[in-house]
């Protein structure tokens, strides 16, 4: 239920309906939904084995992210950071959660320790009913004094979230605000800056934190605060590296008085995790990505497929410009669903194919309006009136709905698939099943590290697990093998041969495929020959001295092989070094750290040569997707090598300073998942919108040859395409706005299909309605992608300033137009955007926008392309990592422990913590941990005997060891890439790397702390308002 609507009308697609033969769906459309279990299902995006309960408060559940943590300290000599994946600290980043949408108003309080009385309006606490009027909540920010009563807002807005007014704040022009008495009736300000009756103690907000050096312990009962002064002009800008010591102590803000991501996540779980999210009502804001919930499709696509920055969009472009809130959708067309949710139904209309609008070509969907007794329909996107073909005709009921609406997925569901006819296929003929080609670097580095032997051994068993359709006994995918260094070796593995045959192509400038028959084969038919080949490859090249490699000709060869076989497919490339051999696509080492913070820094993110873009374009035309596994010991120019994977919809995996003993588990886990995942090949995606808005910009891993079609040689269930919309006309509040995403692709079995996702949004004429229906996690996902693309063309400082300005404009517009009048010293945030500053600060401090000295150029380029196609849950935990205390919750508890805020102040030296961000996993051990805990986990008798940098916990038969290892497995299962564990001891040299992920603190590279950044945002907002 949308809390913005007092009592939603009967969902348009939710009336009771008979169960039709052949189209049964439990609890679907108005029938009782009791069959759907309210809890216990896997991570958003896929099953998590053995993961039963709804996650406990504070645990961020996000789907796959990317690369795992890096290699151990022993790798320092590689010229990379002491840790394999990125350079040390290279993914320090932020948002792990989302922001409280307009949630059920009864759920506002956060903590339990009252700080100071503040006025809130009773309307806020009515669990249902009309939208609450704005209550300006205030908190103790920056030592500013709590303000007095606030008048109600003019337009009704969701709970505004106010951070306190300064007494006598000096600052940007304008008279100082009047002083107010802080003795007001009303609810107490809660520990995290929200208001309402005090709750009992919250998990992980216990006694004063040990080691809370900066801010002291938490306050006791409320006491009148002495008026302190805060000069906003003295607040350091986030770019400044050092604060003078006296300034550090000037504004001792209680960190618990500012909005807490952990609390917002926990509240959303408590309020929205138990009920299924039914998609029948237009413009509903879904639960946060960190909440475990069940989706019931009743006419709008599930938030697992599409999430929007706002579910209520301004009617006019002027209003949109005024608010500056980007209107965007993050679309994940092939997202994996938890087992409790049905995959989209496949609809077969036979030779006539799917029914479409004659003018705009939109596909039939639940929003189309049937008229004239069902003989014609009016398109909901362009209003064109179309004839209904005789074979599709059906009578209408008394409400104007077709009587078979619930028999047909395309008339009652938000997401479904059509079988495509031959008209939707290349050259008007149905496609062949796709092929996988494994292309293995056999240069000196790859052989010496043990990579080639490990890979060949793994492929013998992995080829049994190629993706297959539905109940097929074996996969239809054919496989081929190539090895290379300065030349390429092709292998004939035809089933009739006793031994594989090798053919060498040394003319890499004019690449061709020396054989057709016997190169791409069926695994089960050629099993013996393939096994023989994989046994021979490591031996054949065991004594190689060849150190140089080629790269572009390898991709060219794979593409030509697919072209000759007339099929789409994927190349799996395993590559170790900068391609310096004489050949097309040859690169030079151009790594130059001196360019950082100069106008030429952008060249570090740009490809060295245009040759790879041209090659990528040819690959896309052939439906050839490239997945690249990199094993560099030094600079390999990821910015250039990742161009083809990026433009073909592929993935890049990076294992710096690869060592078999340290990294094999991570590499093999990533490889297995990559080979087994379901992929759509040779895909084209188009997003249509109803009149008034149109798609103007796209972000992700794909190629575009025109302004509307997103072309993807391959698309898997982890990849998203982010689309930005702009107004081209006025929208209508009554009719709302519609999106339809249509993806045409070839399935793993070679079947051509269309997957359709539809979503209806509300439109508003009041800014307050826009701000009440935003989704901060999606907003941050969009802003990060926008910024990460910006660094290709603009200096990094310009990109950072643009982000800060846009955020300040969004919040200033709310303050000016939606919040009730209050003193200028008060920072007022919209309820559903109160985490925007903390998350934005995490993006600004990330390695791409503010690298530390230890972050390599390759690390930055790698992270930049990774974030480009992340979904909302992945960016969420990537930018604001999860920090889980392990000894606070009972050992017998099967649920994940509640998270705590990502700050050093939250660490107790008597505890052990797990920190994860989707790519990295750290186990931090405090120096005063009980000896029994050390013994149970590490099988050593004291803290000093624990090996720092350890990447595997010993398998011990005791409850604590089982619990911690089980938790690590469950976290890994939720992510798309394997996270390698690194054990970090307090006060150890590795601790600097770990602290890089404590994103609420000041970073070594000069990033502001959360508190400082909030003060800086306040200053920016005041300047805009004055």
UniProtKB/TrEMBL annotation:
InterPro entries found in the cross-reference section: ADF-H/Gelsolin-like_dom_sf, Beta-sandwich_Sec23_24, Gelsolin-like_dom, Gelsolin-like_dom_sf, Sec23/24_helical_dom, Sec23/24_helical_dom_sf, Sec23/24_trunk_dom, SEC23_SEC24_subfamily
Domain Sec23/Sec24 beta-sandwich: 680-763
Domain Sec23/Sec24 helical, residue spans: 776-875
Keyword Transmembrane helix attributed: no
Record domain Gelsolin-like: where: 895-967
Domain named Zinc finger Sec23/Sec24-type: residues: 354-392
Keywords: Cytoplasm, Cytoplasmic vesicle, Endoplasmic reticulum, ER-Golgi transport, Membrane, Metal-binding, Phosphoprotein, Protein transport, Transport, Zinc
Membrane association type: Peripheral membrane protein
Subcellular location(s) per record: Cytoplasm, Cytosol; Cytoplasmic vesicle, COPII-coated vesicle membrane; Endoplasmic reticulum membrane
Gene Ontology process terms (BP): COPII-coated vesicle cargo loading; intracellular protein transport
Start-end of Polar residues biased regions: 90-101, 238-247
Pfam families attached to this UniProt entry: Gelsolin, Sec23_BS, Sec23_helical, Sec23_trunk, zf-Sec23_Sec24
Region of interest (Disordered), residue spans: 1-108, 162-256
Domain Sec23/Sec24 trunk: 431-675
Isomerase as UniProt keyword: no
GO molecular function, one term: SNARE binding
Gene3D superfamilies xref list: beta-sandwich domain of Sec23/24 (2.60.40.1670), Sec23/Sec24 helical domain (1.20.120.730), Severin (3.40.20.10), von Willebrand factor, type A domain (3.40.50.410), Zn-finger domain of Sec23/24 (2.30.30.380)
Low complexity bias locations: 60-77
Any one Gene Ontology cellular component term annotated for this protein: endoplasmic reticulum membrane
Chain intervals with Pro residues compositional bias: 8-19
Family classification: Belongs to the SEC23/SEC24 family. SEC24 subfamily.
Name of the molecule in the record: Protein transport protein Sec24C isoform X3
The species this protein was found in: Acinonyx jubatus (Cheetah)
């Amino acid at each position: 239920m949308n809390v913005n609507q007092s009592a939603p009308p009967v969902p348009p697609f939710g009336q009771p309906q008979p169960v039709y033969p052949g189209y049964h769906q439990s609890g679907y459309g108005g029938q009782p939904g009791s069959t759907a279990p309210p809890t216990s299902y896997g991570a958003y995006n896929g099953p998590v084995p053995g993961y039963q309960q709804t996650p406990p408060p504070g645990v961020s559940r996000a789907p796959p992210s990317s690369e795992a943590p890096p290699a151990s300290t022993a790798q320092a000599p590689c010229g990379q950071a002491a840790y394999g994946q990125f350079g040390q600290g290279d993914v320090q980043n932020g948002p792990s959660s989302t922001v409280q949408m307009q949630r059920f108003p009864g759920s506002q309080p956060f903590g339990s320790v009252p700080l100071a009385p503040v006025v809130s309006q009773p309307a806020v606490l009515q669990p249902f009913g009309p939208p609450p009027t704005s209550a300006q909540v205030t908190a103790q920010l920056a030592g500013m004094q709590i303000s007095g009563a606030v008048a109600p807002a003019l337009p009704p807005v969701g709970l505004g979230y106010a951070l306190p007014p300064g007494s006598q704040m000096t600052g940007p022009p304008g008279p100082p605000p009047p002083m107010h008495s802080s003795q007001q009736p009303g609810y107490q300000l809660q520990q995290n800056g929200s208001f309402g009756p005090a709750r009992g103690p919250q998990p992980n907000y216990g006694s004063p934190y040990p080691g809370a050096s900066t801010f002291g312990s938490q306050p006791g009962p409320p006491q009148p605060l002495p008026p302190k002064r805060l000069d906003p002009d003295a607040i350091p800008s986030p770019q400044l590296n050092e604060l003078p010591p006296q300034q550090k102590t000037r504004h001792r803000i209680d960190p618990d008085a500012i909005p807490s991501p952990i609390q917002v996540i926990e509240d959303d779980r408590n309020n929205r995790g138990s009920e299924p999210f039914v998609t029948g009502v237009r413009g509903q804001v879904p639960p946060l990505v960190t909440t475990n919930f069940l989706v019931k499709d009743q006419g709008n696509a599930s938030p697992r497929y599409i999430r929007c920055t706002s579910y209520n969009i301004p009617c006019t472009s002027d209003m949109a410009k005024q608010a500056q809130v980007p209107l965007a959708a993050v679309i994940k067309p092939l997202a994996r669903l938890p087992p409790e949710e049905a995959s989209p139904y496949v609809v077969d209309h036979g030779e006539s194919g799917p029914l479409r609008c004659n003018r705009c070509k939109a596909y039939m969907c639940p929003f189309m309006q049937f008229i004239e007794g069902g003989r014609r329909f009016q398109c909901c996107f362009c209003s064109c009136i179309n004839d209904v073909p005789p074979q599709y005709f059906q009578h209408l009921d008394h409400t104007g709905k077709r009587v078979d609406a619930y028999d047909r997925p395309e008339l009652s569901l938000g997401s479904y698939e059509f079988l495509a006819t031959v008209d939707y296929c290349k050259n008007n003929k149905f496609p062949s099943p796709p092929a996988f080609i494994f292309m293995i670097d056999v240069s000196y580095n790859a052989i010496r590290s043990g990579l080639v032997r490990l890979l060949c051994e793994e492929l013998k068993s992995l080829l049994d697990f190629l993706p297959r359709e539905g109940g097929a006994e074996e996969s239809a995918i054919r496989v081929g093998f190539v090895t290379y260094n300065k030349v390429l070796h092709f292998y004939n593995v035809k089933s009739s041969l006793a031994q594989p045959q090798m053919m060498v192509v040394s003319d890499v400038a004019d690449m061709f495929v020396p054989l057709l028959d016997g190169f791409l084969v069926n695994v089960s038919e050629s099993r013996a020959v393939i096994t023989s080949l994989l046994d021979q490859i490591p031996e054949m090249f065991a004594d190689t001295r060849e150190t140089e490699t080629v790269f572009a000709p390898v991709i060219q060869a794979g593409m030509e092989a697919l072209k000759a076989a007339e099929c789409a497919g994927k190349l799996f490339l395993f590559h170790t070094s900068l391609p310096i051999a004489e050949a097309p696509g040859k690169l030079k080492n151009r790594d130059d750290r001196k360019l950082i913070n100069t106008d030429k820094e952008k060249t570090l993110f740009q490809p060295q040569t245009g040759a790879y873009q041209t090659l990528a374009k040819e690959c896309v035309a052939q439906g050839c997707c490239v997945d690249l596994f990199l094993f560099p010991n030094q600079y390999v120019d990821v910015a250039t090598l990742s161009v083809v994977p990026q433009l073909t919809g592929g993935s890049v995996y990076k294992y710096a300073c690869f060592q078999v003993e340290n990294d094999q588990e991570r590499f093999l886990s990533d490889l297995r998942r990559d080979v087994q995942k379901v992929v759509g090949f040779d895909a084209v995606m188009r997003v249509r919108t109803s009149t008034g808005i149109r798609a103007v910009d796209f972000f992700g891993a794909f190629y575009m040859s025109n302004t509307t079609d997103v072309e993807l040689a391959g698309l898997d269930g982890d990849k998203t395409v982010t689309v930005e919309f702009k107004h081209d006309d006025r929208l209508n509040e009554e009719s709302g706005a519609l999106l339809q995403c249509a993806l045409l692709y070839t399935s793993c079995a070679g079947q051509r299909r269309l997957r359709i996702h539809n979503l209806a949004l509300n439109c508003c004429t009041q800014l307050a309605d826009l701000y009440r229906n935003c989704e901060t996690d999606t907003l941050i996902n969009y802003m990060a992608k926008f910024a990460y693309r910006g660094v290709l063309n603009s200096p990094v400082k310009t990109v950072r300033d643009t982000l800060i300005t846009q955020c300040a404009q969004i919040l200033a517009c709310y303050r000016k137009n939606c919040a009730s009048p209050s003193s200028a010293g008060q920072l007022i945030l919209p309820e559903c955007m109160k985490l925007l500053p903390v998350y934005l600060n995490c993006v600004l401090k990330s390695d791409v926008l503010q690298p530390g000295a230890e972050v390599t150029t390759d690390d930055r380029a790698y992270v930049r392309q990774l974030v480009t196609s992340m979904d909302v849950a992945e960016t969420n935990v990537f930018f604001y990592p999860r920090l889980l205390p392990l000894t606070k919750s009972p050992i017998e508890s099967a649920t994940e422990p509640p998270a705590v805020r990502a700050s050093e102040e939250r660490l107790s030296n008597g505890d052990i913590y797990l920190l994860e961000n989707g790519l990295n996993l750290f186990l931090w051990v405090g120096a005063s941990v009980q000896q029994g805990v050390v013994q149970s986990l590490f099988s050593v008798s004291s803290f000093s005997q624990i090996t720092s940098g350890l990447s595997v916990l010993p398998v011990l038969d005791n409850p604590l060891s089982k619990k911690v290892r089980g938790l690590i497995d469950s976290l890994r299962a939720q992510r798309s890439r394997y996270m390698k564990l690194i054990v970090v001891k307090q006060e150890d040299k590795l601790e600097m790397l770990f602290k890089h992920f404590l994103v609420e603190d000041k970073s070594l590279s000069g990033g502001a702390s959360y508190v400082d950044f909030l003060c800086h945002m306040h200053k920016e907002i005041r300047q805009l308002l004055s």
